[in-house]
Amino acid sequence: MLPASLLACFLLSVGSALAAQRADPQARAWAYSCVTCHGAEHSATKGIPTLAGMPTDDIVKAMLAYASGERPGLLKRQISRGYDEAMLRRIGKWYENLPRNQGGQP
Fold first, then answer.
1. Calpha distance 78→67 (Å, rounded)
2. pLDDT tens digits, residue range 38-64?
3. Which of 36, 59, 71, 78 could form a disulfide with 65 if both were Cys (CB 3.0 to 4.6 A apart)?
4. How far is CA 58 from CA 14, 19, 30, 62, in A?
């Protein structure tokens, strides 16, 4: 049996993740191309940074840099060019509202 405080913490974490996902279902759908490698609450692959909890502006700035070629990255350049800045902002906000896994990896 879990202590009440631990159970409450878990429920709040799950609740906030669900709320973030419901907040903008279109942004969640767009973010699926990111989730494959970056995961939702933690990175799915060792060495790939976690985006959950990252500020929207940081995500948008990075993706615009990939799109322009200022920042190298073959796959990210192709993905980022498929979104305009408003779409990237919505994806960034979706990620910003997800709880960050404190461990950083699964």
1. 7
2. 887 776 677 888 899 999 999 999 999
3. 71
4. 24, 22, 17, 6
Indicate the residue type of 36.
T
What single DSSP character describes residue 44? S
Q: Are 101 and 15 in contact (CB under 8 A)?
A: no
pTM of the model: 0.71
Q: How many alpha carbons fall within 13 Å on the CB side of residue 23?
A: 16
- The region, left, alpha or beta by phi > 0 then psi within -120 to 50, assigned to residue 53 is left
Question: Could you give the CA distance from residue 31 to residue 36 in angstroms, rounded to a whole number?
Answer: 9
Query: Collapsing DSSP states into helix, strand and coil, what is residue 96?
Result: helix
